[in-house]
Amino acid sequence: MTRRSAPPPHPVVRTVHGAVRGERRATGVRFLGVPYALPPVGALRFAAPVPPEPWRGTRDATAYGPTAQRRAFSEVTTIPEPTVPGPDILNLNVFTPDPSPGAGLPVLVWIHGGGFVAGSAASPWYDGAAFNRDGVVVVTVGYRLGVEGFLSLPDAPDNRGVRDWVAALEWVRDNIGAFGGDPAKVTVAGQSAGGGAVLTLMATPSARGLFRAGICASGAVMRPQGRDVAHAVRRLFAARTGVPATAAALRDLTDTGLLAHQDRLNAPGPDRTALPMMALAPFADGELVPEPVPDVLVRGDAGADVPLLLGCTAHEFHGIPQPDATPEGLRVMLAAHGLDEARIRRFLDTYGGHDGGPGELLNQAVTDITFRFPAVAVAEARARRGQPTWLYEFRWPSAAPVFAGLAHHCADLPFAFDLLDAEGVTPVLGAHPPQHLADAVHGAWVAFVRDLDPGPDWPRHTNRDRSTRIWDATPRTESDPLRPLRAIWSPLLPGPAASDRH
User: Fold this and answer.
1) What pLDDT was estimated at residue 289?
2) In the chain, fewer beta carbons within 10 Å around the N or the C end?
3) What is the DSSP string of 28-64?
4) How many Cβ atoms from other residues are within 10 Å of residue 115's Cβ?
5) DSSP bridge partners of 107
6) Which residues are the active-site residues?
């Protein structure tokens, strides 16, 4: 009897730029810190991404590469977000069940969140182990953040972070087959800013054909996002920092110096109130991103043939202290976002039974405006045109003391990645998050990536029954469970008269 030799602990795969050596694990092989573009330093700091130079020999890919994040979003973050120093930040990580050319496995490309100014592809919450176990290749992508990625500069290409996403997807197209993936079966996915990245890519012509489906979890797309807004941000940057908002003036600044200028731009003040909450974010530059993403999505022009799974958590931004909130300030905020007095009363009647007072209601309004209502608006618009769309709301309440009773921002990710035992999960979800819910959420994502359909228990969202998947202790599909939300915000939905939307 012939004994089979054990598989090598460090398999080697050849990319179009050179060979990389990975690390075998129980669920497959991971290749970390693989460059998809040259380091954006010196003359390339604010340039479009440039493909890597070919290398000789075999490059070690057993440790995470440098991150664009030089400082975490805050002192304590929900998701563990490691910062790895170094200039070669335009890298990605590949987790594959089978690094064999021709395996033809479906691929999930993950774009991390972090408000477009922070976040890390090296987070343990984005490990691809469970997806590998279930036959899916995972690619996690690093990209330029903040000023380097998104500040409009007259002497540099706009939307450099978006260009990084496109370059990473082009790398996947050209290389993923060598890692066992099928370049024709790519789903691009992300959460928060990463979910906004998915929607932006759907409205970016140069990204068409690089992915066949999208998953947008709590996607954040800023409004308004025209060139006039980007130019206003540029002027504010120069006024607040005293430094010209040009690549020539910023190229040689240290990371610390550039972050200090970024902090000055983002500080509150009367000259900041007219700008979006996230001033450094993708915008419609008229070229790479031809039109504002929300406009294109609700018109149905973007990604008409791209299946889209999207949704959010029920309490995205709840739990944030709002000590200065007042009933009068809440009314002003709601009116500024388009609600007349009748709709304001409906908002207060719908949510006013809680005990948190105006602060909790303010957080509810921010959750609705930033996440829940935009997801419904996109689903409604796509459903009207028969475009394949699946909508969900994650409602399972955390048992962790700091988030007790809330289905908060990021809480769904350990379930989607089936990583309930990952670092940092217990302080966020509590000691015993339900494995059966992770099985259900993760299983639906796997089915969608593999089959372009999350399964028979989750029908498409249509304007007839508005089927919506509810992720809770008992996962279920309900007909039109977000009707109260739509009833409040429906004047802002494009298309048919409000009477047709209820």
Assistant:
1) 96
2) N
3) EEEEEEEESS----GGGTTSPP-PPPP-SSEEE-SS-
4) 18
5) 137, 186
6) 192, 316, 409
